[in-house]
Specification:
Low-confidence stretches of chain A: none
Distance between the termini of chain B: 22 Å
Distance between the termini of chain A: 36 Å
Mean pLDDT of chain B: 85
Low-confidence stretches of chain B: none
Helix content of chain B: over 70%
Radius of gyration of chain B: 22 Å
Strand order of the largest sheet of chain B: 1-2
Mean pLDDT of chain A: 87
Oligomer: heterodimer
Number of domains of chain B: 2
């Protein structure tokens, strides 16, 4: 029986084969998460409290100012659309990839990567997806909640022109997806360095410090020499600023009215960067794999 | 000769010297332990300033958005809760110094692990005090940290010297600042040690430690100057020990407090240190009575 099943799997189209494996990964992780229920609930509470604290920080900031950046349009409600978007993207990344990359650098140190290389499946796929951290789901939902409530508040705000059309919601989802792809690519590029460095102790810290830059509207960097340099770097080289800024702009439309030319260009850049960074990171990953020398047992 | 044997031998030698010798050995071991990873350290320290960089731009944008803001040589004018733009950045920089003294990574979880794995038995048998040895280790680790981190810190502070609008404070303030930093180290140590020692009663203190970390982040002044909090919270925060872990030394240095407030604060900090020291001692002596170790 087993052999006929194997044969039928081999005859499946590549995509559905991978989806099937992915589905199994998801299910296994869920089973694992559910067997440590208290831990699961604690993790949920932990990550949600971080989000709550983030929220409080900006609530306090908006006691003193009406917007972040003059004429940038990031007033309170617009900004909370932005913040919610960051939570969603961050939550999705942590849900799907964070644990796996921790595991990956451990695999390099112990030589466990050998086994991943031997499997008849794409190595990058195999190391990217096996473990889902389901405890991050509440964070994503919290982000969705914040985005929806802020958009509703904007909707009722007198004098605010959201420019909302039926396709806005699809555009938003599309750019959130692009954002996740970019973040994934940055992460895999970063993780690849641990092949060269033996083991990258600071990987998680480094990730935290880098992603720190995409948690704010890009307008804050558009001042001073260093600011513009940061803006340029994180837009064109490591495009993490487009990750959060494009979808948030689509939904919140901070400047009101119809989009300016540069806003269209920026959105285009967001889509382009998703594809480009995916290819670039794949290239880096394969390059790094060539330098893998296993570890002595 | 392994380290522990050395300690035991030291304890058997001259009665007057043996205490000092014992702690000196502990100190040396911990010092060397830390010096191993110095490269990693320097890089890590520099990276620690990256969030400060975003804070600089975030607050720049915020100060520029204030009603009737204008630009000056030192960036935007205007004030938020008594902080000019430069003060705000300087505050975040100073908080990194306070945190370098008061944060105790791994202390609570370390004690919890000792209790859970039963390794704590070694402190019941050997003539070594748990809290004392942990403190000596911490001092050694921190000293190494300052020694290595001094360079990146000096570099960043030199680059950012323009944000310190009033320049250096006078000697008296500097002295109080230094004392408050040392006290914040001791306070941080005993506070987290108390949390760890609770594990004699509760098996899992990680959620407790998490609540502490959250409160610490929000109410110690780590995330923003405490003056930004709404009034009703400020009164509460003023008397809590948490503000001494980040806000207080920074506020002293930046001249946010007048003389009386400064010494009053220092006194309250000292009281908190004594309280938590006593609490840690009590928890330890009660804890080991409760504790039962098997096998090993």
């Amino acid at each position: 029986m087993a052999s006929t099943e194997t044969q039928s799997i081999q005859r499946m189209p590549v995509v559905s084969r991978y989806l099937r494996v992915w589905y199994t990964f998801c299910r296994n992780s869920l089973i694992r998460d559910m067997s440590f229920r208290t831990d699961f609930i604690l993790q949920c509470i932990t990550s949600m409290s971080w989000a709550a604290m983030n929220f409080v920080l900006f609530k306090i900031i908006y006691r003193f100012t009406s917007s972040i950046g003059p004429e940038s349009g990031w007033h309170e409600n617009e900004f909370f659309v932005f913040l919610g978007t960051v939570w969603i993207i961050n939550g999705l990344i942590q849900l799907m990839f964070m644990g796996n990359f921790d595991e990956f650098s451990e695999m390099i140190r112990t030589g466990g990567l050998d086994f991943a290389l031997l499997k008849p499946i794409d190595t990058q796929f195999l190391i990217s997806f096996p473990r889902m951290n389901w405890a991050q789901i509440p964070n994503v939902l919290l982000g969705v909640g914040l985005v929806i409530s802020s958009v509703v508040a904007l909707w009722h705000e007198p004098g605010k022109d959201l420019g909302f059309a039926w396709w806005t919601i699809f555009a938003y989802l599309f750019f959130v997806l692009c954002g996740v792809v970019v973040m994934y690519s940055v992460m895999i590029a970063l993780a690849s360095t641990s092949i060269w460095l033996g083991r990258n102790q600071n990987l998680y810290d480094f990730w935290f410090y880098i992603t720190n830059f995409y948690r704010y509207p890009m307008e804050i960097y558009q001042r001073g020499g260093i600011g513009w340099a940061l803006w340029g770097t994180f837009t064109f080289v490591v495009p993490i600023l487009v990750v959060s800024n494009v979808p948030a702009r689509v939904l919140a439309n901070p400047l009101g009215g119809s989009w300016r030319l540069w806003e269209w260009g920026y959105a285009g850049l967001g889509a382009f960067m998703a594809v480009a960074s995916l290819f670039a990171s794949r290239w880096i990953f394969n390059r790094a794999l060539r330098s893998y020398r296993s570890a002595s047992s | 000769m392994n380290a522990e044997a050395e300690v035991v031998l030291a304890a058997r030698s001259l009665p007057g010297l043996r205490r000092i010798q014992k702690w000196w050995t502990f100190f040396k071991i911990s010092l060397n332990e830390r010096l191993v990873y110095r490269g990693d350290f320097m890089l890590g320290t520099l990276m620690r300033f990256l969030p400060t960089l975003t804070q600089i731009f975030l607050w720049w944008a915020i100060f520029e958005s204030l009603p009737n803001a204008s630009e000056s040589a030192n960036g935007p004018t205007g004030q938020i809760a008594g902080y000019r733009y430069g003060d705000m950045v300087a505050y975040y920089l100073m908080v990194t110094i306070s945190r370098a003294f008061s944060s105790m990574p791994g202390l609570t979880s370390g004690i919890t692990r000792l209790v859970r794995t039963g390794e704590i038995k070694k402190f019941l048998i050997q003539p070594i005090d748990l809290l004392g040895s942990l403190l000596v280790q911490r001092v050694a680790h921190k000293l190494v940290y300052y020694f290595i981190a001094a360079l990146p810190f000096a570099f960043v502070f030199f680059l950012c010297r323009g944000y310190f609008l009033d320049g250096w404070p006078d000697l008296e303030v500097l002295f109080v600042f230094l004392v408050s930093l040392i006290l914040s180290f001791v306070l941080g140590f005993f506070l987290e040690a108390c949390l760890g020692l609770v594990s004699f009663w509760l098996l899992e203190v990680s959620s407790l430690a998490f609540i502490y970390m959250l409160l610490n982040f929000l109410l110690s002044g780590h995330m923003f100057p405490l003056e930004l909090l709404p009034g009703w919270l400020q009164f509460f925060v003023d008397w809590m020990p948490l503000k001494y872990l980040a806000y207080f030394p920074a506020a002293v240095f930046l001249g946010k407090l007048d003389r009386t407030e400064m010494y009053e604060g220092l006194f309250v900090e000292l009281v908190w240190v004594c309280l938590f020291l006593a609490l840690a001692r009590i928890l330890w002596s009660r804890g080991i009575v409760r504790y039962s170790g098997f096998g090993g």
